[in-house]
Amino acid sequence: xxxxxxxxxxxxxxxxxxxxxxxxxxxxxxxxxxxxxxxxxxxxxxxxxxxxxxxxxxxxxxxxxxxxxxxxxxxxxxxxxxxxxxxxxxxxxxxxxxxxxxxxxxxxxx
Amino acid sequence: xxxxxxxxxxxxxxxxxxxxxxxxxxxxxxxxxxxxxxxxxxxxxxxxxxxxxxxxxxxxxxxxxxxxxxxxxxxxxxxxxxxxxxxxxxxxxxxxxxxxxxxxxxxxxxxxxxxxxxxxxxxxxxxxxxxxxxxxxxxxxxxxxxxxxxxxxxxxxxxxxxxxxxxxxxxxxxxxxxxxxxxxxxxxxxxxxxxxxxxxxxxxxxxxxxxxxxxxxxxxxxxxxxxxxxxx
Lengths: 110, 232
What we know:
The complex is a heterodimer. Chain A has helices at 4-20, 26-36, 45-57, 81-109, and strands at 24-25, 61-67, 73-79. By secondary structure, chain A is α+β, with helices and mostly antiparallel strands. Chain A has one domain (4-109): Winged helix-like DNA-binding domain superfamily/Winged helix DNA-binding domain (Arc Repressor Mutant, subunit A). Chain A has a 3-stranded antiparallel sheet with strand order 1-3-2. In chain A, β2 and β3 (73-79) form a beta hairpin. The relative contact order of chain A is 0.15. By secondary structure, chain B is mainly alpha-helical. In chain B, 76% of the residues lie in helices and 3% in strands. Chain B contains 10 helices and 2 strands. A two-stranded antiparallel sheet of chain B has the order 1-2. Residues 223-232 of chain B have low confidence and may be disordered. The A-B interface holds A 25-27, 44-46, 48-51, 53-54, 57-58, 65, 72-75 and B 24-25, 27-29, 31-33, 35-36, 57-60, 63-64, 67-68, 70-75.
């Protein structure tokens, strides 16, 4: 079973990574993550919004209401300079972790 | 046409945020549900099936409400603790003490209850009967601030816990005083007094406060579950 800390870490990395491409609202963000990970990562509403609000409180992302061409109001999130700064060490940490796990599993199967 | 905003408002009722902040959360979540629903309809799902699929995204609205509150207040852990425990707890303590003083002022006498021969304990029955209400108030306030079950019960029993702390501090204070005045303090006497008065002032009041707290806790869980079933 994957621990809560690892789950949160991957979720934060996923959100910061898709927001690096440009501002998105919650639903679009969840859809984009699901598409880009080919369904490996899925965000339900219950998982996504507490995470977004927490990241907003930490100053990594900023939400603002915008009106879409169809006239609907949506809260769009964009990466802040603090979020951009957070992204590169986070990527490095996860790359190291996956690298280590890959090496470990190769050794175990050898 | 589904009213997603009303659905979210009902299911997240009791979310202890500022009015504007709360409206924004409701609007944002409603927009997400609406968009999920429209996508499923466009994929050819019947309305009812799409509706249930959308609601499936939130298994427990009470838990979501708590998580949103914690996330929104995550920058202020002290403030969260203040609203969930300290304010409800101290209010329960102050109100119960003021009520006891009022009863004493009005001339209500404590009932002396004898147990195990000459041992007696004092019980203020009207005060004890009021305690479940004070416990319920503390639990309600803590629950409104999205306190966890443990925090809600701690807030409801706060007066008994504070008094227990005060009673237990008699031991170190007595020890220090004994050292200062150079006289031995009979800890046996202190312990006997603590045991005797502990029943009337700590155990029974604590149980009465807890009864109110547990009741509110059950009512709140029940209310959220019934709302989950009713809306739609």
